[in-house]
Amino acid sequence: MSNIKNISRRSFVKSVGLASGGLILACNTPVFSDKDKKPENLVDFNPNLFVQLNSDGSLILIASRSEMGNGVRTSLPSVIADEMDADWSRVSVQQAVGDKKYGDQNTDGSRSIRYLYEPMRKMGAMARVMLITAAAQKWQVPETECSAENHFILHTSGKKIAFGDLVEIAKTLEIPSEENLKYKSPKDFKYIGKYLKGIDAKEYGNGSAIFGLDKRLPNMKFVAIARCPVTFGTVKSFDKTEALKISGVVDVIEIPRIEKPFGALGGIAVIATNTWAAFKGKEALKIEWDFGDNQVYDSDQYMNQITENVHKQGKIGKDLGNVNNAFKNAAKTIESTFQLPHLAHTPMEVPNAVAWVQGDSCEVWAPTQAPQSTRKEVTDYLETTEDKVTINVTFLGGGFGRKSKPDYVVEAVIASKTINAPVQVVWTREDDIKHGYYHTVSAQYLKASLDKNGNVTGWLHRFALPSITSTFMPGVDYAAGFEISSAANVPFDIKNLKVEIGQAPAHVRIGWLRSVINIPHGFSINVFADELAYAANKDPLEFRLNLIGNDRIEDTKDPIKYNTARLKNVLKIAAKNADWGKELPEGHAFGLAVHYSFYSYVASIVEVSMKNNKVKVHNIYTVIDCGIVVNKNTVTAQMEGAAIFGMSLAYYGKITAKNGAIEQGNYNDYKMIRMNEIPKVHVEIVESTENPTGVGEPGVPVIAPAIVNAIYKITGKRYYNLPLSDYDLV
Amino acid sequence: MITLRINGKKHDIDVEPDMPLLWAIRDVVGLTGTKYGCGKGLCGSCKVLLDNSPVQSCLIPVSIAEEKNILTIEGESENLQLLQESWIEENVPQCGFCQPGQLIAATALLDKNENPTDDDINEAMIGNICRCGTYQRIKKAINRTVELKKQS
Ligand code: FES
Ligand code: FES
């Protein structure tokens, strides 16, 4: 039985937010966690993708994933429209609320296209067949004489009829059987694999796109919250007198700490009639804090501590062959230590949420990457049931992982419940930088042995970093499996390979940030491999291709295969595009890096120059192999953006703590790449028929190591730590 | 009462004179296209034109903006509209949040310089952060607009 159904006549159409009428197909896409549970009968049918064709010809898709610059609101419907032979200008998208009925809605892990591509195509193909059947019935001709083209069904005789005019017949039809379903041949794709413009581009450009921060409700109050400078510190006492004197401030309330991974940090909230008054009121509060255990956190000292931990034996993460023997018998051994700081997401739109609690019900409007876990947090806090909680997903002004952690929504719900009115909680930029879920801080130690021919015979990678798991299970002080795999699955053909992890307790909330663990591992592995090339007296490109070795499928214990041929391929194409080996102007050099993450293969070659000891990046040649590409425009844009994101962290990214408090507070001390610093970014996408894989994240990890490798080529100096601003290089 | 003239329309608002123009526009007048990104003049998300000059509205008290002509992203100006079209043609926005500020900065540039060099563009746009990293396309879209204007 198919996982797609014609639900045009079923009553729950309204409950998913579509108006009734029209031809409506619903699809039950497998949820990753219960992949084996196939929907076999109507009773179990819980569709989570919906598409509706109306008699006026409009085609509406419900988008279950969040839009945050990732382009899903464009790429998902384009797949259906293509298979259906629909006219792109008739397609619109409705944003789904957070509800299990839409399946997995978490917009992270670069998964949206990976999970939804096949179901989308199937739905489109079925809709096309149904329209053809409807036309054949209407005209009393064989179906084989009918075909679809640009929102019409054509007959061989030359007559044609609009999709919309077939809706009444089509909606009475059974869905076609899957066995005989014909898909378009990729060469006939009109939208898939092409450069499609963003469906929301106009709204972004004229200021009418409604982000979380732009949501307004009648009588809504604006809320700013003072939180303890030290993570998990609590309020001892507070004095609100001065805050209440500020014009526009109407109330000051305490927000309790909710001890859950995504619970509120707690603090004192100022309620006001506008954002400015709330911000001012917050400044005027006098609060005595109980700083708690984390006030001991000093990130410099901590770096020394975890660095010590990687200079001694750790827990085993992987052990192949015998590295000790390899080191003993080596012609040469090389060892290096890497230190990378915490990072903050700083999406352009700060965390914020609108909530309105009425009795035991609640409605939320928020920029969230995770509408369902948001719903769960809110339901838990209110001790109500999920059906009483509605999460409306607004546009996200960037996410990068920050907005999959709905602590800011819980705050809004608490405030609304307490003052019994709709509220909008707005974080200041300082709040965002000082109270985030930080990208982990890390120390890494790598050691390798070379034989007399310059071949790598042994490889030891030891690292210590506070784990994301510590946010969910306080006290965890070693990296988890998913944080080990990107080091353990290093795609080098080395017989003796060992990965060890050192102890690293967490003192702030650790969270995932665009490309997550691949940032530290992609950096150390790529810089170290480059160092080995020089130790072996070889060209870094040739050395790296040899190190990856023969074409093979790496055993990563994952259903999606890691193919070293595809890895080498992206590197070779990048080298060709950059013209690796060509003569560059005085003081310029190329640096390379290649990394596999989120099942995609990415290589970048950067052209860097040094002048007066300052770095300038002139060109970045990035190549990605992410399987079938739905929208080339999105993939290209994501690679361009990833290059800038990677440059920002390489140049400036550093969050530090003293006495438990984060020292940075705004874009003056947590800097971003700006217009005058940008290189030309050249992107090539490998043509592929493999299943689609991640795009949003895998472009980031290669940038910093490629820059560091280029700097080495120019100066002979190897920088093992980031950011480069610490060395005065930018 | 303070009178603001935004996009050619008058708004009488009752706010403290030190309230930054940004919050008067967003929370009191209710035009939300102008964005908050940092509140400290560091990111450019809040840019508007004040008597044709680009300013960070998060730094300007409303009292200073009184009786001046304010242009926000919702407003009309020849260069702004042309740039908006180029923004779509070049597929500039990713998350879109910084783009109103970017467009206002670019409008100010083209208003006083019909043929900006690369350095002119850098200088005009340096105050605007795009965390999504759309800079290259912003530059392309500005250049496209310049070319189109030259041709017509
Ligand atoms: S909000 Fe005004 S410059 Fe950032
Ligand atoms: S498009 Fe997202 S910050 Fe610029």
UniProtKB/TrEMBL annotation, chain A:
It comes from the Bacteria. GO terms for molecular function: oxidoreductase activity. Gene3D superfamilies: Aldehyde oxidase/xanthine dehydrogenase, a/b hammerhead, Aldehyde oxidase/xanthine dehydrogenase, molybdopterin binding domain. It comes from Lutibacter oceani. Pfam families: MoCoBD_1, MoCoBD_2. InterPro entries: Ald_Oxase/Xan_DH_a/b, AldOxase/xan_DH_MoCoBD1, AldOxase/xan_DH_MoCoBD2, AldOxase/xan_DH_Mopterin-bd_sf, N-heterocyclic_Hydroxylase, OxRdtase_Mopterin-bd_su_IorB, TAT_signal. This is Isoquinoline 1-oxidoreductase beta subunit. Residues 206-293 form the Aldehyde oxidase/xanthine dehydrogenase a/b hammerhead domain. SUPFAM superfamilies: Molybdenum cofactor-binding domain.
Automatic annotation (TrEMBL), chain B:
Residues 1-76 form the 2Fe-2S ferredoxin-type domain. One of its GO terms (molecular function) is oxidoreductase activity. Pfam families: Fer2 (PF00111), Fer2_2 (PF01799). Keywords: 2Fe-2S, Iron, Iron-sulfur, Metal-binding, Oxidoreductase. Transmembrane segments: none annotated. SUPFAM superfamilies: 2Fe-2S ferredoxin-like (SSF54292), CO dehydrogenase ISP C-domain like (SSF47741). The keyword Transmembrane helix does not apply. The keyword Oxidoreductase applies. This is Isoquinoline 1-oxidoreductase alpha subunit. It comes from Lutibacter oceani.
